[in-house]
Amino acid sequence: MKIKKFSKKPKNLNERLGAKPIICYPNENLENENLKLLHNARKYIEKINEVIIPPRDAKTFNVKSGNFFRIESIEGPQVGDLNLFQANNLDEKFYSGKTRALYGTHISVGDKMLSSFPYLRSLATITWDTLDWYGYDKDGASVHDVIGTRCDPYTSKLLSGDDYHYCCHSNLSRALAKEKKININDAEKIVHDVLNVFMLTGFTNDTKQYFMKSSPARPGDYLEFFAETDLLGVLSTCPGGDCGSEHSSDVAKCYPLKVTIWNVDKEYLNGVRLSNISSYNRNHGLAK
Question: Which of 278, 246, 280, 283 lies closest to 95 in space, CA to CA?
């Protein structure tokens, strides 16, 4: 944290302060031309499957390219930690850091969930968000963050000295190991930083530390996505419940979450352009 200052202030301090902020990755070229078409198509979607994720656990789900899926609050305020993979290539997975760099700390309608290098394409586009009314509050907090990394047993051990097995990292690892029939150690190597669905978070004004508040999600709220490739999703119901007090424990009140998969007649997707894997030639400056 940059609150402990040991070095001396330079004589030319005023020359070094106050530079104009420049957006690192202007995203105007990423404006979603599909969104108007998708908003029309979603009027005609039909539910074809659903998965209930119990409290303090995780489950997998599959979504075909061209389908919609929702993560829904059904019994009470509950945060969910989401991993996304390209269904046929687990090396291609959600890249929260690049998504954050392009869209900001919290994402909503029209924003894309980008995949990891060397693929870097949209795995899914957010098409509806019943909590977009929240915006940013007086503390700078908002919902659906790509800041947090997922609660995990290693940080829990570091801070508390306890072994806790139902952190989101462990939940995601167990579910992925079961789905793909792989060793738990191999599964946790490909579990990745998440989209914190329904989580209300920000950075403090003084120390810029990551903070959380009670989620504003209530039964009936949902976050909806359009799949731009075949997807394997893994969703954990966070042991912090609404994350208004603590996580990585059995103290918080937790609720299940529901994932629903929705199909739509392809006639309503005419004109929708699906994403493509990056065309960068991967030479990296080496002579051929």
Answer: 278
